[in-house]
Amino acid sequence: MKPTHTDHYLNFLSHHPIEHKLSVARTLLERSQCVVTEIEDRKQEDSHVEEALRVCGYPKWNFNKVRGQIESKRDKKTRKQRDSSRRTMVVIPYMENVSEAVARIMRKHNVSVAMKPYKTLKSAGG
What we know:
With 126 residues, the protein is mainly alpha-helical. It folds into two domains: 1-83, no CATH class; 85-118, no CATH class. It is built from five helices and two strands; from the N terminus they run αααβαβα. It has a two-stranded parallel sheet. Helix 4 (98-108) links the parallel strand 1 and strand 2. Helix 1 packs antiparallel against helix 2 (39-55) and helix 1 crosses helix 3. The protein is globular, with a radius of gyration of 17 Å. The termini are far apart.
């Protein structure tokens, strides 16, 4: 790691979809699995990631959920190879609490949902 790295990541209390916050932890933990080869070094890296994210407000349940997602991702890869059907995908504007509820409903109907900000710096400029 570079000496100038600050371990600052997306704050858990910021106004972003929960999927983005989970993605921060998942990406860092998956990276340690792919890049770090020694088991002890990987445990040390995972501890460092968790501590850095705790400083950014990430709760313990976040890490448990992400680890579960990583494990199920391995299983899904195997199932996906067997199941060639594609899911429908929609993109909706992110509105706190509303977008999450819509995504849960859509998931029940086998529709993937991606969220994007509806207010951007570009749209605010004139």
